[in-house]
Amino acid sequence: MACCASLTFYEAIRTMDNVTFRAEIHEQIEKAGNADILVGIPSFNNARTIGHVVRAVQAGLAKYFPDHKAVIVNSDGGSSDGTMEVVHKTSVEDFNAILLHHRVKPISKLAFSYSGIPGKGSAFRSIFEIAQRLDAKACVVVDSDLRSITPEWVELLVKPVLNGGFDYVAPLYHRHKFDGTITNSIVYPLTRTLYGKRLRQPIGGDFGFSGKLAQFYLTKDVWESDVARFGIDIWMTTTAIANGFKVAQSFLGAKIHDAKDPGADLSNMLYQVVSATFDLMENYADVWVPIRGSEPVTTFGFEYTVGLEHVNVNTARMLKLFRESLNNLREIWLDILGAGDLREVERLGALSDGEFDFPLSLWTRIIYDYAIAFHQKKLPTEHLIKSLTPLYVGKTASFILAAEQMEAAEAEAEIEKLCMEFESSKDYLATRWK
Question: Rounded to the nearest 5 degrees, what angle is found at the Cα of 309, between the Cα atoms of 390 and 49?
């Protein structure tokens, strides 16, 4: 059985297309010639978890694609904890323990520090460039902090592209009902409503895509923008849908990573994700304004019940932040929401914790009003979206209080109700946008 070739590179000194790489990387790319499958793993100080991710990817390639030429690319953001050294040393010790037959084609590993604006998008750009140079047919990108990745993820993200003709495969996970609250309360309902596709995890972090789509991404002039820093996940999803590429999703099981307490300070993450989403609305208004309703997308994988880690939440702290902001942000909220909806927000602030219930219709109008305020440039972007944070925290606290005793399916049904509210109110957004 052929062994893995391990290639580790660090500094960047020579230009390939639009991205700068060390000369040795050019030589190894030229030596590889081409690849059927490329798996990218962007990283930054992930030495603790990336070894497991690399082993799972190697096992998946060996088990499910033994006859295909594969390359693993670690695009690192300048880790100081030995992340790339872990990638260099990591290998599956005994392929026979997991394989139905011996692997035919070797797997190459490239690990290097990318150049450009620090951020996940710059790491992805390097991966896209290598995919283009190797003429890869199918590509996968997975997060480097995953603890739940299995070899089957590789099959589920690659096979729809290689065999099914799909250009983009988003992940579908089971997550704890209090995990991913920015996705559940803003990004999923809004993206679904705007573009008419029910991709449940538009910013999941683990994707499959065709070489053709990777090349299309490279034609976009976004690599010196906030996309290069933090908006890459929603940008990839939206760009694929809005430009008519064939999209699907694959059920991957549990998403277990370093989950964040939605009651903690998520203002930076909210700013990053929502600003990118609103910016894409500007670019694709001609696409989303006429769309009404949504449709399911093709889903691969057998959906099964999984055990999930509990997410602890401090709703009292969240509601305290919401109430304190009623005075601090009143003038800004009045300008963005109008007097009527501000009165509704103030009414919520007067409720006790046990009575607190954020109406879905009010939350929907708030998100639409913030999108319109962004469109009209009412405030600098960071100030605008950070003023949304206490409202988001209040909405999230309301959901947590309501869903505390719910099973996962019941909690998901509540998110579906929110999506339907977004869809039924789209005229409100489209009319004011114009």
Answer: 95
- 293 CB-contact burial (10 Å; exposed 0-12 / middle 13-18 / buried 19+): exposed
Backbone phi, then psi, for 306, in 5-degree steps? -130, 150
229 DSSP 8-state letter: I
Residues whose CB falls within 8 Å of the CB of residue 115, separated by 6 or more in sequence, listed in order: 12, 19, 20, 122
Evaluate the CA torsion angle 161, 164, 170, 173 in order and state its sign.
Answer: negative
Domains of the chain: 5-300 (3.90.550.10), 315-433 (no CATH)
Indicate the DSSP class of residue 98.
T
CA–CA gap between residue 157 and residue 58 (Å, rounded): 14
In what helix (H) or strand (E) does residue 298 lie, and over which residues does it extend?
strand 298-300
338: helix, coil or strand? coil
| Token pair listed for 36 | 């059927």
Distances, alpha carbon 159 to alpha carbons 169, 214, 269, in Å? 10, 16, 32
Q: Check if the beta carbon of residue 122 is closer than 8 Å to that of residue 116.
A: yes
- Provide the 10 A C-beta neighbour count for residue 209: 27
- pLDDT tens sequence across 122-181: 788 889 999 999 999 999 999 988 888 999 999 999 999 999 999 999 999 988 888 889
What does the alpha-carbon distance between residue 99 and residue 89 come to, in Å, rounded to a whole number? Answer: 21
Confidence of residue 10 (pLDDT cuts 50, 70, 90): very low
3-state secondary structure of 240: helix
pTM of the model: 0.88
